[in-house]
Amino acid sequence: AIALLCTFAPAMAQEADWTKSKWGPADEIGAANYITPELVVKAAQLVKTGKTYPLGIETNSKTPAFPPRGFKLMVVQPGQAGIEGLGPNKATYNDDIIEGWVGVGSQLDGLGHLGIGHVYYNGNKLADFADPNGLKKLGIEKVPPLVARGVLLDMAAMNNTDVVKEGTAFNRAEIEAAAKKQGVEIRQGDVVLFHTGWTSLIGKDDKRYSAGEPGIGLDGAKYLTDIGVVAVGSDSSALEVMPFETKDLFPVHQHLLAKTGTYILENMNTEQLAKDKAYEFLFVLGQPRVTGAVQAIINPVAIR
Ligand code: UVW
């Protein structure tokens, strides 16, 4: 019963003392607590056509990433050099090795990613949970399946452009205006994605892609966490507007991850959803459950 009460705790109560989660001192999953079986059933009812959308972009050594991050894939044939195959039946196989950072391409930021003065979600001090072999708390393996109602806000359409200009902030007024224009409501338990056209720059103008971006501002982040969304994502590398609105660095990351336990989805492939005007859909994410990982390279799926 206590767990049930916590699940329905009003979204607004979070920030009073951000180091104390409203879901209790042991909580490690933050806004994923908003997901209930009832909301999953409701979200599944949004599936009408069976059309599926991969929300991950392709990831490879050329994918621009936040420095010094990089990524390399190696394909190997272990024990097969110079032979036709293994055993009398000549069994052959390819394996692969990733030598790279996890924060490359389409990614989920876990709650252990960004903190405030080395304090992270639910007051966890880095010294108490950091380990070079994997976080002892807030690891990505703890994140339950993120299955929710997805909402797309097409900020490119709102701005009458294919690619929204870098430095354009989406705050409460812009978010409300986009939702109103599209006739969608943002609700507790939703995953909200912003389409800006920014990932279309990858491979065409990587310099511009990495130098700044349109994205949500702090007031927009607060508006969404007051509603009680599970995750916020966009088709840009950091979700939040850059240059930042003030001298503070990554304030939206701090508000979402550290203060309110709200997940961040970066470099989402929102192009086709926007083309189809698919503003509401079933969102499904089962991330790789690497023990103690901070982030995950992901390919969530939108279904409508
Ligand atoms: C940082 O916030 C440092 O990285 P990312 O945008 O990948 O979450």
UniProtKB/TrEMBL annotation:
Sorted UniProt keywords: Signal
Signal is among the record's keywords: yes
SUPFAM superfamilies membership: Putative cyclase
Domain of life: Bacteria
MF term (GO), any: arylformamidase activity
Claim: Signal is one of the keywords in the record: yes
Pfam families attached to this UniProt entry: Cyclase
GO biological process: L-tryptophan catabolic process to kynurenine
Name of the protein in question: Polyketide cyclase
